[in-house]
Each structure stands twice: as C-alpha cells, then as structure tokens.
Amino acid sequence: MQKVCIVGANGYSGVELIRLINQHPFLSLELIVSHSNSGKVITDLYPHLSEIVEENLEVFDTNEIAEKVDIVFFATPAGVSMDYLPALVELGIKCVDLSGDFRLRSSQLYKDWYKKIHTNESYLQQSTYGLTEVNKEQIKNASFIANPGCYATAGLLGLIPMMHTGLINYESIIIDGKSGVSGAGRNPSISSHFAEVNENVKAYKLGAHQHIPEIEQILLDHCEIPIKLTFSTHLIPMTRGILCTIYVDLIKKISTNEILDIYRSFYKNAPFVRLRQEGTWPSTKEVLGSNFCDLGFFVDERTNRLTIISVIDNVMKGASGQAIQNVNILNGWEETTGLSFTPVYP
Ligand SMILES: NC(=O)C1=CN([C@@H]2O[C@H](COP(=O)(O)OP(=O)(O)OC[C@H]3O[C@@H](n4cnc5c(N)ncnc54)[C@H](OP(=O)(O)O)[C@@H]3O)[C@@H](O)[C@H]2O)C=CC1
Ligand SMILES: CC(=O)N[C@@H](CCC(=O)OP(=O)(O)O)C(=O)O
After folding, report:
1. Top-level CATH class of 2-126?
2. ipTM exceeding 0.90?
C-alpha cells in the first residue's frame, strides 16, 4: 500500500483524485491539502463525499507530508508546485504535478506562455512528461512526473503516430479543440458563468494557449522537425469532455484503413486507447467518466487531408485518471489498476 497526499484536493481534479484513490486497491489517502479552505471538512465543500471521505483539509507543510506519505499529487494552479515540489522530490517523495509548472523544458518558454517567472528552473530538465502511452519506459523510473495538459493529451495521442510515418506535411497541422467548462476549474469566473456558457460556443486564447508550446515540444521529439502548430480552443456548454479535430495534410495517397493499421500498431499495448472503425467517429459521451482516449479517422481523397477525431474526459484521461495511470506504471502495477471504468452513458 502506498500512502498519498493531494495538494489542491478541493479543486475539480483534486476531488476526482479522491474518487479514484478511494477505490484504488494499492493507494490510501492520508492527507488532503488546500489553500484558502484549509480547516474545513471536504464534505462541507463536496457533500457527495458524505460517509465516503470526510477528512479535514490541511495547510501545506513539507515536513508533515514527507513524514506521512509516499506519493504527492499537485492538483494546483500554475505557479504553485514550482515552489513546493522540489523540496519533496529531494526528500525522496514521488510527485505527480497536474499543473503546467514542469511540462516545458525551458524557463523562457514558461515565462512566455504562462506569464510567470519559474522559481525552480533546474527542475524543468528533470521532470518526466507523463503522456503514459508514449513515455511508459521513462515513467517507470521517474523521480517526478509532469502530467500533460488536457488538450495536449487529446491532441498528442491523436497526432503522434503520424509523426513517425513520413506521410504528412509538417507545416500545416491544425488542432481544433473544444472543452467542457470543468476544464477551467471550480473557481467561478465571468467566462465560466452559466449565462455566458449556456447555449453558446466561443473561441478563447487563440494563439496564446499554454498547450501550444507543450504540444510543439513533444511533437519535435517525435519528428525532429520544429512544428508551428495552429491550435484553436473553444468553450462549449458541457461539463466534462474534450473533442479535438485534428487536420493533417498527406503527402502520399493512403486510405483510412491503412491509417488505422498505423494506429493499431502504435497503440497495440495501450489499453486506454480505442480506435473507431472506418466511417464512425467518437463523441465525448463515449468516454465520459473513463480513462479512455477514443480516436477516429477520415481521409478525404479529394483534398488528400487526414482528419483525426480524438476525445477524452478532461478530468480523467486529461488530468486525474492519467495521473493515476502514471502512478501505476511508476509502482510497477498493471496500468489499468483502479481505472477500469465503463464510460457513463447516456
Ligand atoms: N480541470 C481540468 O480538467 C484539468 C486541470 N488541469 C490542471 O490541474 C490543476 C488543477 O486544476 P483544477 O482542479 O481544475 O483547479 P481548481 O481551480 O478547481 O482547484 C485548484 C486547487 O488548488 C488549490 N490551491 C490554489 N492555490 C494553492 C496554493 N498556493 N497552495 C495549495 N493549494 C492551492 C485550491 O485550493 P483553495 O480552493 O482552497 O484555494 C484548489 O484546491 C491546474 O493546474 C489545471 O490547469 C489539467 C488538466 C485538466
Ligand atoms: C476550459 C478551460 O479553460 N480549460 C483550460 C485547460 C486547463 C488545462 O488543462 O491546462 P493547464 O494544466 O495547462 O493549465 C484552459 O484552456 O486553459
């Protein structure tokens, strides 16, 4: 049994971690930490946890955490874990950071896209990027894991198998992403207000989304060509779910079925990636509450363009589910341990 602490336990991804850890056979929840809500009982904020988890939210204390637990999840906004995670890693505690603080390898990139100065830049080079299906070997020996962003997870799982093929034009890749509102976290804001989101679809952060450099950095690892990605994000009137429509220009003639073969081979050992047969494409409801990423494909023979549809549940595979999947790998457990949920439907 590994003992666990969640920092930021009362946010959306924190409370999803509570749900997952509570039914995981090898993880036990020892400590939950918040910021402005420390002192409160978690059920004051989340009555759905009544008679299941009724712990107090504590103040962050490095020594107490290091004494009590083996693994720490940071489910905190950008700019928090960079101050706290390094000391825990130094003390031998395994950490998984759900924020963007350790995903980018350069502090300049972090400053440019997160508009913050990184306070522990030497750690940027030491993190392991936790896109499980792609980085499994590195994750096994990681001292700490930078869990990918939600859009980055959907976009990269959809794109990476094509990056190795030599079949695509690397200069014209487009990801069109759409997210449910839980992706913005629990803190209310004007942009997530019901009246702003309901019966509305809007683009946001065009050309400025923090997942652009994250995706470009990982794509570079896979094709050794610097990619300038067009990435558009949209907020849609839905609670959970991300759908990315990815457009890739092909430089050779290839059928949808041959594309499917490429993905079948790439994901042959990936229990959470499911491929749709030709002529059907996944929707967000088909992965709701689960750790699956479902992919569908269409080659338009008129334009010689490949469209990839990638869907995930942003709080699961996009955040807490993938964080648990990474902890499973880190501990040498079956990667599906505690994650074998059938999606919720309808
Ligand atoms: N929601 C999602 O779908 C996804 C989220 N992420 C990332 O995961 C992280 C958490 O997101 P989410 O759960 O949505 O966010 P929320 O806004 O819902 O929750 C943030 C949590 O962090 C806590 N917190 C804030 N500042 C501090 C601090 N200085 N020290 C300790 N705790 C602090 C808050 O505590 P309090 O309320 O008490 O102040 C709260 O518990 C973010 O970095 C986000 O970008 C990544 C992928 C998907
Ligand atoms: C709907 C919505 O606002 N979504 C968030 C996604 C947050 C996330 O996954 O990103 P980081 O972990 O990189 O902060 C956004 O687009 O910024």
Report:
1. alpha beta
2. yes
